Amino acid sequence: MGERRRRSAAAADRGSLARDRALAGNRILVGDCLDELRRIPDRSVDLVFADPPYNLQLSTELLRPNNTRVDGVDDAWDKFGSFEEYDRFTRAWLAECRRVLKPDGALWLIGSYHNVFRLGVALQDLGFWILNDVVWRKVNPMPNFRGRRFTNAHETLIWAARDQKSRYTFNYESLKSSNDDLQMRSDWLFPICSGPERLKDDGGRKAHPTQKPEALLHRVLLATTNPGDTVLDPFFGTGTTGAVAQRLGRRWIGIERDTDYAKAAHERIAKVTALSDSALETTPSKRTEPRVPFGTIVELGILRAGSKLYDERRSVRAEVKADGTLAVPGSRGSIHRLGAAVQGKTACNGWTFWHYERGGVLHPIDNLRERAKVELGLTKTHRPHIIAAE
Ligand SMILES: C[S@@+](CC[C@H](N)C(=O)[O-])C[C@H]1O[C@@H](n2cnc3c(N)ncnc32)[C@H](O)[C@@H]1O
Asked: How far is CA 102 from the centre of its chain?
């Protein structure tokens, strides 16, 4: 082998080693995010969480009424020469994030009024599809000392799919269960990071000016990833994303330019214990559960042809036909179509609209699906209150 070919083969090996290591997950890449992102293979990441520089544009130091200095963000990593420079940087790293995301991947950004609008425009221009913006309302925000503006008490997160057509992960049922069975809203209330969770340097000062609370990442990762997914954070800081991902059984890759922050992140994550598989089990989403059509329930004899179904108030009565359709005088159709027609609506979830009677009590036909799944061997558990209609 010639010297040139040998050298290029060695370089390719190094490249693939770096790729393999990056793919294996659970590592901090110390360096500039643009350089490090370029080493990560295309379509290899499930979720990006990015907490980029805010570009705060602080020109003078901020003092409290007693003249003590406010410990804000005045670090070199947050300084850009102009909005144009910030936008160029934003578009470059966002484009790389989009490249490394799997087709069904998604991205979260967090920012303040200083940068979040610029981030949003860049996202949309690059082809991401915004799914929600979420307001993180801070229980204990930093006061506004000068009193010339509102207290800045929130940050904004943007959740976006890689593409409009991406089949992104959203653990709707888990979130709903965790919110006392109410659909989770887009305004989240959490304290800023303080107390023992806040990392300190040897002098007892904050190790990082903008360490995010783990609670915030806990919700983000539980909502939009599954155990085993790979999460990438290109602005790792003290490694909040990595610490929570480690605990929740997700794989993680962090990129951080500052070696002190990277070291703090490494030491922090080393102390985290991953939860057990059983503690990580989540409420399955109805959409990912095996589908059982209504006709199968009739075929299995769980509900016999000729049975009567009712709406919740018993104002409508339909008959079940042998082919799995329902009929009322003058109209016939699927459980959904007939449900919509009798209400004069364009759509209806027939599973919750129609009820069967047992012992004088009405039950939604949705309950019968569980029994069908047991009979079809699609699930092992069987809720005891489910009974066949007569
Ligand atoms: C807002 S902080 C992230 C804080 C982090 N979420 C946490 O909880 O600790 C942004 C971080 O990005 C890093 N950073 C800024 N520019 C960078 C770049 N071009 N490449 C890599 N890291 C960068 C900074 O050093 C800083 O730690």
From this structure: 15
